C-alpha cells in the first residue's frame, strides 16, 4: 500500500534491520452522479485500522465565460470557465468496541510548568496528557472550532495496563466553510456544520440526509439537526452505542497550463 507495515534500520551499536511488507483488503464501488464518477474505497489494513477514501473523476462543472467569470473560477478552454464549488460528504461510522457500551473521548496535551527533578530550582514547560470524556453538546465538534488532537470511541473495558480499549477516529479533509447557517437552504445539509458529531444510536436514524432533500431544501425530508438535537446540560451520553458522523469536504477548482 505504498509504505511498509513497519520497519527499522539501526547502525548505532549493531547493524540491524527488520521490517514487514504491507498489504490491505480494498472494497471498491463507483457511483456516477451527473458529471462525476465517485470512487469509494474502504480499506482494511493488517494493523487493524480501517480507512474510507473517496475521490472524483469525470467532467468538470463549467459555464460560458463572460465578464466577471474569473471571480468564480478559471478559464480552462476557449470561452469555457471551470467553476469553483465544494463537495460535501458525510459518513456514518457505527463502531461497537467490545460491545455497545462505548463513550466518546478526546485526548490532547497542554504545557505545564514543572520543576526539573535533577535540578529542583529550575522549571521547564512539559507537555502533559489531557483526557476528557464528552457527554453533552460538546460531542458535536463544529467545523470552525479547534479540534482535539485525538478522538476516540472507547469501551468501558480496559487492557492489562488499565487503559480503555478504543478506536481512534481521524478526519483529514476540510476545505473551508459551507453555506452560512442564516441561509434557509442550509437546512438540507446542516450536517456540514460539524467536523464530527456523536449521537446515541437509534435504528430509525440511518442517514444524515435523504435523496428527497433536493425536492424541498427549505423543509428537508431528513433534517440532521433533528437527528442531533443540542443536548441540555443535564442530558448525558452515558456508555451506549455511539455512531459517529464525520464530514469530509473537497474544494473543486480547475486550472490549466497552456503551451505557446
From TrEMBL:
Residues 2-224 form the Copper amine oxidase catalytic domain. Signal peptide: none annotated. Its EC number is 1.4.3.-. Its cofactor is Cu cation. Topaquinone (TPQ) is generated by copper-dependent autoxidation of a specific tyrosyl residue. GO terms for molecular function: copper ion binding; primary methylamine oxidase activity; quinone binding. It comes from the Eukaryota. Contains 1 topaquinone per subunit. Keywords: Copper, Metal-binding, Oxidoreductase, TPQ. Pfam families: Cu_amine_oxid. Gene3D superfamilies: Copper amine oxidase, catalytic domain (2.70.98.20). InterPro entries: Cu_Am_ox_TPQ-bd, Cu_amine_oxidase, Cu_amine_oxidase_C, Cu_amine_oxidase_C_sf. GO terms for cellular component: plasma membrane. GO terms for biological process: amine metabolic process. The modification 2',4',5'-topaquinone is found at residue 36. Belongs to the copper/topaquinone oxidase family. This is Amine oxidase. The gene is LOC115363044.
